[in-house]
């Protein structure tokens, strides 16, 4: 009887027991040493960050006996988005098998933490986490471009920001947002005669909050006890190392009288401008919005103006 203590991988092989007699007798027995999987960190990918549109390959090397199988999954349990060969289309898959996960022309939707799982039916299976960050310049989308409120009410303005890395976001009131390379400011006034926007801070007058979900951030501004001084243009601005973007909203007053709702002159000008632009009778700047390559915008403006007028008409009745 042969007993091998503290079996090691190097003990794998065949052993022969031989009896030196006449005739000689022998018997051969083989040992297969099974080894659980182990991931080689030195040959596997660490966390990586790439810009949107670039290619990325993440690698996971593992050893063991039998040879481990390597499977990739998303840590959050969501489907992986992989691009079809020679195609722009992304398909959803639960997992991917292979040591090399190639991700061409990355999109922001593919950002996240990926798990490399190595198994060979010898417990325990092992895993490694690789974080994939996709960087891109901010984009800002206001939930509404035109809001009305009666005096004394609280008004909430919202913007959705998409950005990676995490942006610096803030709110401005009045004027217009400067382009990054603009230098024509003198004594707080633009060369075009517009006043510099006022940065809004969280406090008794304004409530400012942010909710972040992955690469999306919901910005909220609450204007408390709405007054005539609060009428005007508001900007939600977001910036990171790759760029800057802003969204603009117009806040106007809805005057409430015992006989119903009455629009202010500012409100009527806005609604009239929308209607004229939609019909092609507005000024050149309004017409330029709906001409040429943007015919769809005329439909949007008609619907917006009609909706506002219908709401005011029903309130006055």
TrEMBL record:
Residues 37-133, 138-252 form the Ig-like domain. The keyword Membrane applies. Gene3D superfamilies: Immunoglobulins. It comes from the Eukaryota. The keyword ATP-binding does not apply. InterPro entries: Ig-like_dom (IPR007110), Ig-like_dom_sf (IPR036179), Ig-like_fold (IPR013783), Ig_sub (IPR003599), Ig_sub2 (IPR003598), Neural/epithelial_adhesion (IPR051170). This is Lachesin. Its main location: membrane. PANTHER family: CTX-RELATED TYPE I TRANSMEMBRANE PROTEIN, DPR-INTERACTING PROTEIN GAMMA. SMART domains: IG, IGc2. GO terms for cellular component: neuron projection; plasma membrane. Transmembrane segments: none annotated. It comes from Culex pipiens (House mosquito).
């Amino acid at each position: 009887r042969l007993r091998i203590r503290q079996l090691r991988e190097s003990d794998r092989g065949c052993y022969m027991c031989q009896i030196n007699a006449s005739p000689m007798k022998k018997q051969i027995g083989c040992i297969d040493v099974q080894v659980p999987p182990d991931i080689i960190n030195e040959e596997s990918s660490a966390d990586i960050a790439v810009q949107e549109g670039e290619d990325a390959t993440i690698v996971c090397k593992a050893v063991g006996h039998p040879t481990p199988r390597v499977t990739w999954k998303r840590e959050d349990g969501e489907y992986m988005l992989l691009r079809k060969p020679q195609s722009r289309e992304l398909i959803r898959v639960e997992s991917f098998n292979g040591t090399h996960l190639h991700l061409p022309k990355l999109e922001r939707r593919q950002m996240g933490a990926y798990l490399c799982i190595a198994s060979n039916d010898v417990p325990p299976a092992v895993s490694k986490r690789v974080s994939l960050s996709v960087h891109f310049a901010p984009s800002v989308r206001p939930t509404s471009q035109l809001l009305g409120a009666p005096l004394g009410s609280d008004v909430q303005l919202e913007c959705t920001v998409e950005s990676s890395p995490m942006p610096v976001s803030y709110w401005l009131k009045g004027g217009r947002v400067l382009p990054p390379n603009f230098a024509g400011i003198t004594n707080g006034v633009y060369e075009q005669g517009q006043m510099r926007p006022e940065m809004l801070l969280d406090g008794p007058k304004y409530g400012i909050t942010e909710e972040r979900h992955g690469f999306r951030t919901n910005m909220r501004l609450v204007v408390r006890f709405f007054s005539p001084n609060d009428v005007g243009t508001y900007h939600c601005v977001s910036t990171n190392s790759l760029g800057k973007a802003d969204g603009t909203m117009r806040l106007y007053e809805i005057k409430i009288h015992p006989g119903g709702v009455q629009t202010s002159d500012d409100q009527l000008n806005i609604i009239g401008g929308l209607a004229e632009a939609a019909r092609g009778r507005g000024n050149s700047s309004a017409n330029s919005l709906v001409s040429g390559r943007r015919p769809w915008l005329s439909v949007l403006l008609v619907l917006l103006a009609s909706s506002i007028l219908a709401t005011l008409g029903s309130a006055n009745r």
